[in-house]
Design goal:
The structure is a single chain. The chain is mostly helical. The chain contains four helices and no strands. α1 packs antiparallel against α2, α2 packs across α3 and α3 packs antiparallel against α4. It is elongated, with a radius of gyration of 21 Å.
């Protein structure tokens, strides 16, 4: 079992809490702090990537089915590897974009409602992919 997320998070935290203070007042301190924050956020993103991709795949299949795409349900990742999940997600996203283009030119209330559901889904997905704000250490500055 891999603990990459935990390792990245701990490494990032160590850079921010132990190494950066030792480099205070030096340009390298700022770079170490930034690197630590980015590494911590990468660890968090890696830890949740498979779950996020799986939820996006499932959600897009539901939306595509509502739009009449009966083939979307057959799209599945070849494995649970992130690269395979991403490939399946991207294929479904292409279909979802095509559906949205069709819905944009359809003036019916049903098309508008489905288009609104798609936009809500996309907004929720973008929010879910945002990393948590890093915890900044309080400073002595005024």
């Amino acid at each position: 079992m891999s603990h990459i997320g935990m390792i990245l998070t701990r490494l990032g935290r160590q850079l921010v809490t132990e190494i950066t203070p030792a480099l205070e007042g030096h340009y390298a301190g700022g770079k170490a702090n930034l690197a630590g924050l980015v590494i911590s956020m990468a660890g968090e993103a890696w830890d949740g990537a498979a779950d996020q991709l799986s939820r996006e795949i499932d959600g897009m299949k539901v939306l595509l089915a509502k739009g009449g795409d009966t083939q979307a349900a057959t799209i599945a990742p070849a494995s649970l590897k992130l690269s395979d999940l991403q490939t399946a997600r991207d294929e479904l996203a292409e279909r979802l974009i095509a559906l949205q283009v069709a819905l944009e030119s359809d003036a019916s209330p049903e098309a508008a409602a489905l288009n609104m559901q798609i936009w809500a889904f996309l907004l929720a997905g973008a929010g879910a992919r945002m990393p948590s704000p890093p915890e900044f250490q309080p400073t002595d500055e005024g």
